[in-house]
Amino acid sequence: MPVAVHLVEHPLAAASLTKVRDEATPNNVFRQELERIGTLLIVEATRNLPTHEVSVRTPIQETTGRVLSTQPIVVPVLRAGLGFLNAAQVLLPTADVGFIGISRDEETFEPKPYVNKLPESFENRVCIVLDPMLATGGSLAHTCRLLVDAGATGPIIVVCALAAPEGLDFLRTTDLDLIIYTASIDERLNENAYIVPGLGDAGDRQFGAA
Ligand code: PRP
Ligand code: URA
After folding, report:
1. pTM of the predicted model, to two decimals?
2. 58 C-alpha to ligand 1 centroid (Å)
3. What backbone phi and psi angles, to 5 degrees, belong to 87?
4. DSSP state string for 36-65
5. 115 alpha carbon, closest ligand
6. Which among 96, 104, 145, 174 is annotated as catalytic?
7. Residue 193 CA, closest ligand 1 atom number
8. Domains of the chain: residue spans and CATH
9. Best substitution site from 102, 186, 195 to test ligand 2's pocket, by max atoms within 8 Å of Cβ?
10. What is the pLDDT along the chain (210 residues), one digit of tens a residue?
């Protein structure tokens, strides 16, 4: 299945990326800057959402405008994906939110799911997965399979701050239909499957070590 990757190169995203990479950035600033990256990425990721024409009366006259034809579903992957949730809800106020919780096994790097709370109906709805980190791609593949099992059809939109080439290559070997928006494709993974140069542990840097 196709995996399209869009690298979002924007000066504001680049500046925020520098802040979140900096090990000296405190957690509160890290959260703010990550949310800014989320906003910029989600604007791009929603560029092709379907719309239809409606009429609207201005104080001057009747005219036409456009509204979204889909009520999207956004799915933050706990914990780190919560850092993009406020940005998504500000931009998509009518979206429903599903929650998937996944942690990586520290030895095998395999995804270990622990939360699955998704909206009842996925019919004709665009799904947008939020996870700042795409490392091996295991967590994302697992999340997207849960969404397909729940009824998601069509390409799933993915928003991540950083992606590793290895994770993107892995996703291309799967049967998933994905459109990925990222602010950076980093160099590689290290021996602990952390993104290099990366930003460290995106969950810990927002919420403390767990
Ligand atoms: C992080 C991140 C992704 C995952 C990416 O979660 O939020 O979900 O790692 O790694 P992968 O591509 O190799 O699967 P983590 O397991 O650290 O949990 P956390 O968000 O609770 O810290
Ligand atoms: N998860 C993270 O939070 N950071 C990485 O570099 C890889 C996985």
Report:
1. 0.97
2. 47
3. -60, -45
4. HHHHHHHHHHTTT--EEEEEEE-SS-EEEE
5. 1
6. 104
7. 13
8. 3-47+74-203 (3.40.50.2020)
9. 195
10. 799 999 999 999 999 999 999 999 999 999 999 999 999 999 999 999 999 999 999 999 999 999 999 899 999 999 999 999 999 999 999 999 999 999 999 899 999 999 999 999 999 899 999 999 999 999 999 999 999 999 999 899 999 999 999 999 999 999 999 999 999 999 999 999 999 999 999 999 999 998
